[in-house]
Description:
Elements: E1 20-31, E2 38-49, E3 53-57, H1 64-71, E4 79-84, E5 87-88, H2 95-104, E6 105-108, H3 122-133, H4 139-152, H5 169-181, E7 187-191, H6 199-216, E8 219-224, H7 227-233, E9 236-241, E10 244-250, H8 251-256, H9 261-268, H10 275-279, E11 281-282, E12 299-302, E13 308-311, H11 313-324, E14 333-334, H12 341-347, H13 352-358, H14 368-376, H15 378-390, H16 394-426
Parallel strand pairs: 3-8, 3-9, 6-7, 7-8
Antiparallel strand pairs: 1-2, 1-4, 4-5, 9-10, 10-13, 11-14, 12-13
Amino acid sequence: xxxxxxxxxxxxxxxxxxxxxxxxxxxxxxFGKGENAVRAVKNASFxxxxxETFSLVGESGSGKTTIGRAVIRVNPCAAGEIxxxxxxxxxxxxxxxxxxxxxxxQMVFQDPAASLNERATVDYIISEGLYNFHLFENEAxxxxxxxxxxxxxxxxxxxxxxxxxxxxxxxxxRIGLARAMVMEPELVVADEPISAxxxxxxxxxxxxLKKFQKEKNLTYxxxxxxxxxxxxxxxxxxxxxxxxxxxxxxxxxxxxFPLHPYTRSLISAxxxxxxxxxxxxxxxxxxxxxxxxxxxxxxxxxIGHDHYVFGNKKEIEEYKKTREANIPLKSVTILGENAPxxxxxxxxxxTAAEDExxxxxxxxxxxxxxxxxxxxxPIIGLITGFIFKHFKYYxxxxxxxxxxxxxxxxxxxxxxxxxxxxxxxQL
Length: 427
């Protein structure tokens, strides 16, 4: 069978009528060989539809970036395959197809400083793809494309002559975004593009991504670990845990019905802006030991509503019953004044006195100097210690008290010895 040398205009159509742009099929990614081999991604499968934002979420080291790098053909697949518009793009492929994949699939990296060539000007960084694929008619056309793109990401044409080190983190990420978008790709792999940025800058970069998606009909594979952001920008979300895809569903479906316990633990970890509510929140902790996969092996199964969950037959039946009940699951519990005593004790293990001690001031260090001075001047040391205690400097208070008591005991011993000597002399 002859190998495909070019990408088709459209990808295959899924059962729901949507065009499948990217398909990950039973992909394994392994690093190392023999006994030292590490299986970073295990039998991963999911589809990304044209024009959507598919987010891949999980904790650090779960395999998110590994999959993203496999899509752009940096990480090889040990098993399975990756298809783009129905054409296999993993493994060895013809040179012409490889160039088309590079042209159509671009990546925005997590670290905006490390992903830009410090010795190249911004103009060359953005133009490099245009040069490699000759995507301009003449020099004037290239300059116009680069200037238009630098304006679209919120920078100015005069920035083109500068170098990356002259920009802030947010500006560097905009340059990385411009480098990807100037190629006019169909799919963009965004590998935690906002995790290294300030909160206010994050919103600007996210707005830029959505703007480009709307104007250019882009598709995103958005890699992140912050579910609070993912919820509002994603059409569908895939959850990955230690290389296994454990749940895939539409954004609201996933948050209303987080069936896999790991998904529930991620949702419960989302910070609540109100500090009092956050203090009274009970975290849902995921324990992998609850699964018994010794006999009945797990797999990713569609339980309906385009909702996929990873589990064995027994777990899948339970997940189906839970979903068919159609009652949204609560992942976050906030304790109130009337909460049961055993739950309140579990959520708030510290006593009032312990909490008061833990909330001590910054400079409450219990410096040894306070103890020495209190030893020399015990009365003043005791007075100072009680002043510290009044202002909740408990460590300083304890040091002063110990020093003063030691000083008083030392003086008492000296007086007793002096009196004993007097008695001996008179006898």
